[in-house]
């Protein structure tokens, strides 16, 4: 429990120096990671100017991708998902467009804990 309180306090301290734009941006990214934001991801060739691929839907970009790879995970049903692995090169890049407004507040934030990722600190006597 002490670890949980410390983590929450550190999170609040980190947000104290953020601007409204920083908080709104973080909230939009978090909403997209929970598949609440419709996006269009377009891959194009920078030399020819041609579009190569478009992915649309409630999609989240990979958070731990390398500089030469991008993963896109999309929610396609109530509990259905598709994951795409895309290679990037010197002339292939991408653009992500948010397709609709999102009701995101710069004055509100939330911390979402996944129950499976929280390991309780248990004292056994």
Keywords:
globular, 125 residues, 23% helix, 34% strand, alpha+beta, 2 helices, five-stranded antiparallel sheet
Explain the overall architecture.
- By secondary structure, this protein is α+β, with helices and mostly antiparallel strands.
- It has 2 helices and 5 strands, in the order H-H-E-E-E-E-E.
- It has helices spanning 2-16, 20-33; strands at 38-45, 51-61, 69-77, 80-87, 92-98.
- It has a 5-stranded antiparallel beta sheet, with no helix packed on it.
- The two termini are 17 Å apart.
- The model is unreliable at 6-10 (pLDDT under 50).
Give a brief description.
With 125 residues, this protein is of the alpha+beta class.
What is the mean predicted local confidence, pLDDT? 78
- Please summarize the sheet with the most strands: 5 strands, antiparallel
Q: Helix and strand succession? A: HHEEEEE
Structural class: alpha+beta
Indicate the topology.
Blueprint: H1 2-16, H2 20-33, E1 38-45, E2 51-61, E3 69-77, E4 80-87, E5 92-98
Antiparallel strand pairs: 1-2, 1-5, 2-3, 3-4
């Amino acid at each position: 429990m002490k670890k949980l309180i410390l983590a929450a306090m550190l999170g609040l301290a980190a947000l104290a120096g953020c601007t409204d734009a920083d908080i709104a941006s973080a909230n939009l990214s978090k909403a997209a990671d929970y598949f609440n934001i419709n996006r269009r991801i377009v891959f194009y060739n920078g030399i020819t100017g041609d579009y190569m691929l478009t992915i649309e839907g409630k999609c989240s970009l990979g958070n731990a991708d390398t500089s030469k790879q991008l993963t896109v995970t999309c929610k396609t049903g109530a509990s259905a998902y598709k994951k795409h692995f895309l290679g990037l090169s010197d002339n292939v890049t991408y653009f992500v467009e948010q397709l609709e407004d999102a009701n995101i507040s710069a004055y509100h934030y939330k911390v979402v804990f996944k129950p499976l990722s929280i390991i309780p600190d248990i004292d056994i006597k």
